[in-house]
Amino acid sequence: MGRISLHILLFILILVFLTQLSAGEIVQVKIEGTINEGSYLTLKKAFEFAEERNARAILIVIDTPGGLVSSTEKMISLMLSSKIPVITYVPPGSFSASAGSLIVIAGNIAGMANGTSIGAATPITFGVGEPKVEQKAVNYLASYAKAIAEKRGRNVSAVERFVREAYSASAKEAYRYGIIDVLADSIDDLLDKIDGKVVETSAGKVVLRTKGEKIVYAEKPFKAKVFDLISSPELASILLIIGIYALIFGLTSPGFGAEVLGAICLILALFGLGVIEVNSFGVLLIILGVLFLIAELLTSTYGILGVASIFCIVLGSIMLYEEPLMPKAFYESFPLLIGGIATGLGIIMTYIILKVIQVKRMKRKVGAEALIGKKGEVVYFSNGKGMAKIDGELWRIESQENLVSGDEVVVIGREGLVLKVMKK
User: Fold this and answer.
1) Is the pTM of this model over 0.90?
2) Which end of the chain is flanked by fewer CB atoms within 10 Å, N or C?
3) Which superfamily does CATH assign the domain made up of 10-225 to?
């Protein structure tokens, strides 16, 4: 019994040693570029990685101009509910604007390097002409930002100004006004300065032990890289436009594989649109544009409905998104980029589809059917049957009339390779 107890005690000591060994690590993850679903998946994987290794803290290094609201909210939810202390940091040469500023203040400890900035989170949407501010979105995001600031004990009024007034603060101002906790010009400097601080996590109060601790990097998973691409509004829009036209072309002209390409593009576009706030009016315009194109194919209007289709799809594509925390440059470049692509692709594809339909309609009149109504001259005729020269070619003919060589006839029908004629 004594030997068994000794083994159990040794086993427990080894477990404690291993736990303490892994607990000395800090998991670092980098969030850069536009915030999207790929950013959320990257952060989620980092939290799982940190929990597996029983890390002391998670360090989120941030460099972003803003991004998708839904992805931002999911990232902040992860941070606020974390049992592991979360440290956010804006390193030298980086900045944190719009959605990024909300992520920074959501950390248990928020740090910035001198020369960096934070703020400018006023929501913007596409309007007629210039981008505009939606008061409804402002009120929601202002209350959301205040709730985060209150949760983390930060300067509520300053954070609210990020949203309501597009207020932006330098790192020194953010530190002075209590928006962030520490100024540090390197990660090592940051970890030294916050060592010993007490933070409140979902599991209770934790004393940070960060000085000289080992940093383990959480890599971006492959799934996150895929979603980085397809949850981009620009790429999702391009895939949607290509998918619509390729699918219509494939259905009207099977055999080229365009319908397969169209279906793949539409599926990828829908995956991306599934994590993006979509404007219902933009969706209706795109649907209307598709209906106009189908109507043009069914009832030729000499391109009138085709032009209306292009106009609706272009305008719908531009107005498709309601993402108030995207970078300001997005609202300036997106209409030009997508408007140009949608217009060019719409004109080219509509022209090709209409020409293909015209050619198909013409092919239906190939051969004898094209001769109906044509005039010809009887070469010989006997017992209701004979031959006639029609449109420069000899054809077998039948007629209920008595015809003789030289009679001028008109083609009135056809049975197989035999033309039905009557005397002109």
Assistant:
1) no
2) N
3) 2-enoyl-CoA Hydratase; Chain A, domain 1 (3.90.226.10)
